[in-house]
């Protein structure tokens, strides 16, 4: 397999920290050191809009709210210690999430009207990551101040702090929600990943994942209804897959349990399942688990992008055949050295593929952001 460069968004004047695909429109938002959010089209890779004026320092992270009705809602986390909530009406959007044809980039930018609606204050230092829950009811933020905050959307642009979690002992690098449950994960400079769920009226830490020997920079959940797994990436140059095990006396469910008010406070049982083949020579800053194909992508300080696939193997390491005893292993199926030249890569994200008419098509793209101010767009070819 070959990871082929198929395009790039127009270059930005400074480092690009991350990119986030819109949940149902052919758009991508990027966070930059120059305090701006830029919105790009996935139809022709053009710049659609530049959002400025909300933050005083670099925008480190952003996240689209899922299930926002009739509008797009974007959360931004900044080194100025604040989190911003932006709104834009989806004028001209079809009910199926596709936009009407637009004549050119200039007209699109004029039509974009983003409003800086809410500022969430509370962190004492840089906000490193923001993430909406799958249902859109909760927003999680984390910071260099060692805390994870959970905010509840109360409606009418009103947000309430419902939890300030202080379980980590060092800078918290990233937060991520389970795609099907109200289960939150965070990764930290203290070398751990922690998981949280709601117990009655409090959010509690229900599991601590230990195994990395240095900072855990990035985490991503698998989207699989039959089991819950998480991948983490670290300064120790490894990526590790963790799996939730059934409680004692409990069989593995066909669907994951819902985390709801009144849930039991029993500690969840998570264990390290595998370490991905080690190929990175410097810090892995980003990892993303494709919700469509199950592939995992990593990137980091060595400028490489690596894609991994889980395969069935027999005890002797050969591909499995019918009737043979088998297990699963991860193998590297694609690799791009120097994907941003001599520059480090800050993030990789899987992304849907759209045609020029704004219709989602088969296939998947991989976005990478770098210190060179460029967002590259790759496609995996068989």
TrEMBL record:
Gene3D superfamilies: YVTN repeat-like/Quinoprotein amine dehydrogenase. The keyword Repeat applies. GO terms for biological process: iron-sulfur cluster assembly. InterPro entries: CIAO1/Cia1, WD40/YVTN_repeat-like_dom_sf, WD40_repeat_dom_sf, WD40_rpt. Residues 86-97 have a biased composition (Basic and acidic residues). Residues 80-113 are annotated as: Disordered. SMART domains: WD40. Keywords: Repeat, WD repeat. Belongs to the WD repeat CIA1 family. This is Probable cytosolic iron-sulfur protein assembly protein 1.
């Amino acid at each position: 397999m070959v990871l082929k460069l198929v395009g790039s968004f127009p270059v930005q004047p400074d480092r690009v920290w991350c990119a986030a695909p819109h949940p149902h429109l052919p758009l991508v938002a990027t966070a930059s050191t120059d305090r701006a959010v830029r919105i790009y089209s996935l139809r022709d890779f053009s710049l659609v809009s530049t959002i400025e004026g909300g933050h005083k320092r670099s925008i480190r992270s952003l996240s689209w709210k899922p299930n926002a009705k009739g509008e797009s809602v974007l959360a931004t986390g900044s080194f100025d210690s604040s989190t911003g909530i932006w709104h834009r009406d989806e004028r001209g959007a079809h009910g199926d999430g596709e936009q009407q044809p637009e004549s050119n980039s200039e007209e699109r930018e004029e039509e974009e009207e983003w409003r800086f609606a809410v500022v969430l204050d509370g962190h004492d230092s840089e906000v490193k990551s923001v993430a909406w829950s799958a249902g859109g009811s909760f927003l999680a933020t984390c910071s260099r101040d060692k805390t994870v905050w959970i905010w509840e959307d109360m409606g009418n642009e009103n947000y309430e702090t419902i939890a300030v979690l202080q379980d980590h002992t060092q800078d918290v690098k990233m937060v991520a929600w389970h795609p099907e449950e109200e289960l939150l994960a965070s990764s930290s400079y203290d070398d751990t990943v922690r998981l949280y769920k709601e117990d009655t009226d409090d959010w509690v830490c229900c599991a601590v994942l230990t195994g990395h020997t240095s900072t855990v920079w990035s985490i991503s959940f698998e989207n699989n209804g039959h089991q819950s797994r998480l991948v983490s990436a670290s300064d120790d140059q490894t990526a590790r897959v963790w799996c939730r095990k059934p409680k004692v006396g409990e069989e593995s469910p066909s669907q994951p349990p819902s985390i709801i008010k009144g849930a039991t406070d029993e500690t969840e049982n998570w264990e390290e399942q595998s370490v991905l083949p080690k190929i990175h020579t410097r810090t892995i800053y980003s990892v993303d688990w494709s919700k469509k194909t199950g592939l995992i992508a990593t990137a980091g300080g060595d400028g490489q992008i690596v894609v991994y696939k889980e395969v069935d193997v027999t005890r002797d390491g050969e591909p499995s055949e019918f009737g043979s005893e088998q297990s699963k292993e991860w193998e590297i199926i694609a690799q791009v050295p120097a994907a941003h030249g001599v520059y480090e890569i800050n993030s990789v994200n899987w992304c849907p593929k759209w045609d020029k008419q704004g219709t989602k098509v088969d296939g998947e793209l991989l976005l990478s952001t770098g210190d060179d101010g460029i967002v590259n767009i790759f496609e995996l070819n068989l």
